[in-house]
């Protein structure tokens, strides 16, 4: 094909374009994969942190059940355990069965009923805690707010880091690709001038450079994907051992849940597709800038 013939005519420039796009695609794929995995792990940890709500001993059970029903309808709760006075007292007796004096000094009525709540998403933990703090029948709300806030902060830092990396790679890649296309144009200057003398339009002269870049983009993205799959295959056993006991990890983006672990072909395909579009846009931008400037 003509496009491969043109690529072979400028091997060093074509190889440089391939390597810069391969490097960008692979680094982005690894960064996004790692970030999604860590965010999924943090989300799992965050949602395992419960909000414990202690009610006043005088609060009626009917009022407690009403609050439970209201909370369950909100769609924010993954699990809710209700511990009534009797269960709380039984737990206290089991904990202090070797100390009969303590058992004689208290009774079931002295123990407050409670909720132990796990949220579907970390942000819901704050909302649930705030909800109960405003209720009259609630005596105390225990919630490891600082721990969750730190995990949320780390998650936000990871997301920002990927954005910064993508921006840096885009700037670096576009500058490098523009330079490579300029070299290609310079090496084919006489051919381009001849085409212009024969009446070829700038679009027709520029098209081979776009075609070459598109082919290199496809090849580099496929190579980066293959490298990523090989890396995932190598570390798969280590990840399985690290996540022993955890059946699945997922991340929710704009109300859409993506399975991160076990490896999901749909999630992987969407990630590769996004990176391909990113590399493709960089290639089109750099080629257009170079051809607009040096092909009159």
Explain this structure to me?
By secondary structure, the protein is an alpha+beta fold. The chain is 71% helix and 11% strand. The chain is built from 10 helices and 6 strands, in the order H-H-E-H-E-H-H-E-H-E-H-H-H-E-E-H. It has helices at 2-9, 11-48, 61-73, 85-95, 100-104, 122-133, 145-187, 189-197, 202-242, 265-294; strands at 51-55, 77-83, 114-119, 138-142, 249-253, 256-261. The strands form 2 sheets. The chain has a 4-stranded antiparallel beta sheet with strand order 2-3-1-4. Strand 5 and strand 6 (256-261) form a beta hairpin. Helix 1 crosses helix 9. The radius of gyration is 30 Å and the shape is elongated.
Key features of this structure:
alpha+beta; Alpha-Beta Plaits; 2 domains; 4-stranded antiparallel β-sheet; two-stranded antiparallel ribbon; 6 strands
Distance between the termini: 26 Å
Record field, number of beta strands: 6
Strand content: 5-15%
Structural domain count: 2
The SSE order reads HHEHEHHEHEHHHEEH
Instruction: Output the strand order for the largest sheet.
Output: 2-3-1-4
Radius of gyration: 30 Å
Instruction: Describe the main β-sheet briefly.
Output: 4 strands, antiparallel
Helix content: over 70%
